[in-house]
Amino acid sequence: MAIISDIHSNLPAIEVVLEQIAKEGVDQILCAGDIVGYGPYPNEVIECLKKIKITAIQGNHDRAVLSHDSSNMNIQAQDAVWWTIENLKQEGHDYLAQLSARKSFCWNGLSIAIFHGSPRNDDEYISEEGADDGLLELSKSDFLVLGHTHVPFVRSLDKGTIVNPGSIGQPRDGDPRSSLTIYDHRLRRFEVKRLAYDIDAVAEAMRSSGLPSFLSLRLYSGI
User: Fold this and answer.
1) How would you classify residue 178: left for phi > 0, otherwise alpha for psi between -120 and 50, otherwise beta?
2) pTM to 2 decimals?
């Protein structure tokens, strides 16, 4: 299984990640939301996802684009949301709209739940320190997938495991490389992988498209 999140309209990043996932030979891909926002390639990223088998949910940026409500975001994120609204094709809008805000299912004997923020609040930021058995109980799962923070972690607890794969398109843990998590159910082993991509190309596309320069600059630092 491959676990990803927070692609944020970064086409070169998701292309590199999907190439790696294909090499891993996984039979399931999970995405914890924020497919769009920040980056300059919302339509192209959605087309990539439509071509593969993936279980995805909406993130807060996806919901903001659909609702035209970015009032709870900082000014750079708001600007990127409105840029995305203006540039997203109808088929891309339709793809985001058919995704649910959260999802639960069974896979290889595991009960899995996916939330962008947390089972308490879709916009809550959960750090590794805050990932506890109470969240597993609320999610009614023994394998909980979260996104939103852009910081990867795998936390094994008494009642199960909580995973945040980090961000594909806008890492925030000081490492600018894309982040994803691979789970081998036969070995019961998690591995966080970091993959380099062409940041220069994305940053230039962001600048030329009129997206906030701050968003392109932070790609290089991963913060």
Assistant:
1) beta
2) 0.96
